[in-house]
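Homework help thread (please don't just give me the answer)

Our assignment gives two proteins as sequence + structure token strings and asks us to describe the second one. The first is just a warm-up. Here they are:
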Amino acid sequence: MRVFILPHDPPFGQFLDITGKEYHYLARVRRLKVGEQFPGTDALGGRWQCTIVSIGPSSLRLQLEQSVTFTEPQQPSIQLIQCLPKATKMDLIVRQSTEAGVRRVIPVYSRYSQVRLKGRQEAEKKLARWQRIADQALQQSGAPRPPLIEPPQEIQTVLENLQEEMGEEVRLFFHQDREGSDTLHGCLSKSVKIVTLVVGPEGGLSEGEIDLLRQKRFVPVTVGNTVLRTETAALYAIAAVQIVVHERRAWEPT
């Protein structure tokens, strides 16, 4: 456990009582004792120093002290629009996206998506599962904050709701074929605060979806000459963006 996800949203008092599965994890699985300390994080990315001050049969009490030693890396906020893949591939995408520090994951239905959740109940069940996976990945990796995972939506709805004014946002969609002459370095050479990525499903994006992406000022980029699985493409795209942004200053001429 690199960091413990606090089960309530801030603001907190000096003490926080932990029950349920979080109590079981700390007291029974980790077998932590009174006086032991560990780092915690809240839903907003705030960092806390947690000290166990008492342990009961079904709850424990933490003393919280806000930490000022943690500084989040100055990286653009990445949001991933991921066309829903088959089976449990979305579980892997959520886990890897969390480890990589993605801020927002938006699952979408596209024309060639082979998965469509049946009704609100199934969608809520999937969403709860993805959130649990993200929480576990954050605790293990120590990523800056848990991502916001949205309920599955139609890709057209998500794209049409995007703001026309982009500001310091870069919009990219990853395609197996080179759809244009733009490069990742060129797209990320300016000051960027938000990077929005679109990754298609197993069958790829349709021509109509590509046209809509272009209308919304998404730039097509490719990450090689091979066709990647959608779960591989998502991580590949996130990693490529982060590396280019992180090392951009080192490549700039002096």
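The one we have to describe:
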Amino acid sequence: MSYMVTVILTVQMVSAVAMIGLILIQHGKGADMGAAFGSGGSGSLFGASGSANFLSRTTAVLATVFFVCTLALAYFGNLHPAGTSSVLDSAAAPAAPASAAASAAPAASGAAQIPAN
């Protein structure tokens, strides 16, 4: 189980870093206006509009991988073995006071109710 979580976490981190890199490489919507007037679109590696499609689709695939890994990590994080219980279930209850008279005596005086700094 731990091996699988480690692999999923590694895939999630790699997809997150790759997605950040691809998003930073892409041009914004305002950059298309300059390409419409002939500023450099023909000399690019993927053609005039091929890079936008390739980078957009790759980003979408990496985002899907990232979210699937996130859901898988959430599932494995909430998965508990059958024989175990919560730490709070096994905690001991606080001890009861020794006698009712001992606990009533400090409450009767006004000085006992003021916290000391």
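TA reply:
I won't write it for you, but here's a hint about the kind of observation we're looking for: The mean pLDDT is 75.
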